[in-house]
Amino acid sequence: MDGNEPMEPRNRAGESLREQDLDQIRESLRGLRYGVVNIVVQDGVIVQIDRTEKRRIRRDLSGSEVRSSR
């Protein structure tokens, strides 16, 4: 580093904000089997992360719920 590069913003714990954003994205993906993670960016900055999880309920011919094994 020659001192001309801009410093990456950091949170109070000293963690880079980019790494913090990536951690939040990873957390949104963790355990997601079926669904969508949307990342909203404004002016090059992540401002929102939405997680939508889909759960399918299978039913047999009698209308009873069929439990799926995970």
Structural notes for this entry:
- There is one protein chain.
- The chain is built from 1 helix and 4 strands; from the N terminus they run H-E-E-E-E.
- Strands 1-2 form a two-stranded antiparallel sheet.
- A hairpin with a 5-residue loop joins strand 3 and strand 4.
- The longest helix has 13 residues, at 17-29.
- The radius of gyration is 20 Å and the shape is elongated.
- It has one helix at 17-29, and strands at 35-42, 45-53, 58-59, 65-66.
- It has a domain at 10-52.
- With 70 residues, the chain is of the alpha+beta class.
Write the layout of secondary structure elements.
Blueprint: H1 17-29, E1 35-42, E2 45-53, E3 58-59, E4 65-66
Antiparallel strand pairs: 1-2, 3-4
With helices defined by DSSP (H or I, 4 residues minimum), what is the helix count? Answer: 1
| Order of the strands making up the biggest sheet | 1-2
Number of strands: 4
Topology pattern, helix = H, strand = E: HEEEE
Computed over alpha carbons, the radius of gyration is: 20 Å
How would you classify the helix and strand content by structural class? alpha+beta
Mean pLDDT: 81
- The stretches of 5 or more residues where confidence is low (pLDDT under 50) are none
Oligomeric state = single chain
Helix content: 10-25%
Distance between the termini: 49 Å
Shape: elongated
Characterize the main sheet.
2 strands, antiparallel
Task: Tell me the fraction of residues in β-strands, as a range.
Answer: 25-35%
Keywords for this entry:
alpha+beta, two-stranded antiparallel ribbon
